[in-house]
Write a structure and sequence with these properties.
Layout lengths: L3 E6 L3 H12 L4 E5 L16 E3 L4 H5 L6 H12 L7 H15 L2 H7 L28 E3 L3 H19 L2 E5 L1 E9 L2 E10 L14 E14 L8 H6 L23 H8 L17 E2 L9 E2 L7
Helix pairs in contact: 1-6, 3-4
């Protein structure tokens, strides 16, 4: 017997969005998350909250001339899409660029999100749009930064919890995806003891039991490896030479990447492991929240 129509693994921003969209389509959803409610929203909470929009009102007010064609040209200049496994990523990327040039901003605005009036320019490329990076500013910083991006979806999940359409099971650590007849039909894992040390602080991994849940669909929204330097080093591309001896960490230790191997063992295809994105500028936090806590430095215009 199914426990829900869909199971979402991970209560970060992607998991919250997936849960609210599934619920909006009339589905009953269970969200499983290894951390406590304190960490709802995951690493997005710590982000700068910049969103990618194309030909936005903010751009037009600043005299920035953008288009979906230019944005797609910039995207191709960065992504490359030069491997056989890039077929599906390419289709997803094109759909996302169209989304960013279409309903994305209106959809988020309707939910209460707002942005600074001047779009910024991270990942800046050349003006000719013939290589890596953006050829025009497309980075729209949300009022409230990361927490401002997370809030509408955390609020909607809470509303759905109140109506019984969503159940969030914290301290549920997924150890395996269950497969029946070649189809993923659930999750199995470890119940962790209650632990609420504060947002971003490493929590207990002491087991107090186990669990198993089943649903027609399982959505894995947990794949970040930034808190696990062993995985970062294992995926380090040869073209960049040896990885640094010392690394800072921009995300909490819970961003451990453990769901990658778990999902792959159930038949998933993991592509482009060596095409990671790591910001190189940063300093050690004098009062760290998590191990090796690095603070990103945003350089001024130059």
């Amino acid at each position: 017997m199914a426990d829900a129509d869909a199971i979402v693994v991970g209560a970060g921003l992607a998991g919250l969005v997936a849960a609210t969209e599934l619920t909006g389509a009339g589905r009953r959803v269970v969200v499983v998350e290894q951390e406590s409610r304190t960490n709802l929203g995951g690493q997005a909470f710590w982000s700068f909250g910049g969103l990618f929009f194309v030909d936005s009102p903010e751009q037009r007010r600043m005299g920035v001339k953008d288009s979906v064609e230019l944005a797609w040209q910039d995207w191709l200049g960065t992504a490359g899409f030069d491997r056989p496994e890039d077929h599906w990523p390419g289709l997803w990327a094109r759909a996302y660029v169209d989304f960013a040039a279409g309903e994305k901003r209106a959809w988020l605005h309707e939910q209460g999100m707002r942005w600074l009036p001047n779009p910024g320019w991270p990942e800046r490329g050349g003006y000719l749009a013939d290589g890596h990076g953006n050829s025009v500013p497309r980075f729209h910083v949300t009022w409230g930064t990361g927490p401002g991006v997370m809030e509408p979806f955390a609020r909607r999940v809470s509303e759905h919890v109140a109506t019984g359409r969503v159940t969030v099971r914290h301290r549920h650590q997924v150890d395996a995806l269950t497969v029946t007849g070649g189809t993923v039909d659930g999750v199995r894992g470890t119940l962790l003891e209650p632990s609420t040390p504060g947002r971003g602080v490493s929590s207990s991994r002491t087991a107090v039991g186990d669990f198993e849940l089943h649903a027609q669909a399982v959505v894995v929204t947990s794949g970040g490896i930034g808190g696990n330097h062993d995985l970062v080093k294992a995926a380090w591309p040869d073209r960049l030479g040896a990885y640094p001896e010392g690394m800072l960490t921009g995300v909490p230790a819970q961003v451990d990447g453990r769901m990658l191997a778990i999902t792959e063992s159930a038949g998933a295809s993991i592509v482009n492991r060596d095409r990671m994105w790591h910001y190189t500028e940063g300093v050690a936090n004098w009062d760290p929240i998590w191990p090796g806590h690095g603070i990103r430095i945003l350089p001024g215009p130059s």
